[in-house]
Model the fold of this input.
Amino acid sequence: MEITQTKQGDILVIGPKGKLDANTSKMFEDRLMPLIDQGHKKVLADFSQLDYISSAGLRVLLLAARKLSESGGKIALCSLRPSIKTVFDIAGFSTVFSVFATQEDAITGFTK
Amino acid sequence: MTATKNLASLVIKNDLAEMARVSEIVEDLGQKHGVSAEALYAVNLALEEILVNVISYGYADDGEHQIIVRFDVDAGDFVTEIEDDAKPFNPLETPPPDVEAPLAEKPLGGLGIHLTRTMMDSVAYRRERGKNILAMRKKIASDHQG
Done:
């Protein structure tokens, strides 16, 4: 799967494209977790190009959030498509993750 | 659901790489039968979650097994049925995970089955001829019209 990666100030923006499923989530995990190990404290997962997420993808987000909270960091998400928002709501992720409508909103949210 | 009524069926091996074939046929049938994007997402997710469970945890041996996935359209529903020869497992008997738990205590397991049960309109399990058979239905039309 294609994963974009940019920096907005001190915020690492990571954007998985397509599907975060049982086959691709490992790739996302292998990309994201070392970045957190390297010391990135503010991570924004931009889902504007993401069509699909299953529990395999949710698992990676949960692992990343736990690792970040251990190091005093934080993960936020933005630009969730309606079906992905539904999955977040059912899994109880909408209440424990900071979810923003746009990347701009998320970056503002981080600097607050 | 009888064999003659089946729109399509697919036999896959107990290998996660087979998931691509499953989602391909779901997309194809979905287009042909005007299944809403929302319903297709739910069907794809349910199939993934259940098949991953069967393939990852269902078999005591390392051998090759066949899993049959059947598709049908019935009474406005997109129907999928999964038949496997894995150890008996009724996903309807698993307790729901505590989705209200805070981040540190959020369970990693059980989410897939919880998502499946919530997103599908119905899920029915039966054990027959030494097989697990899981039938799932999802309304073809979107819940959010207009």
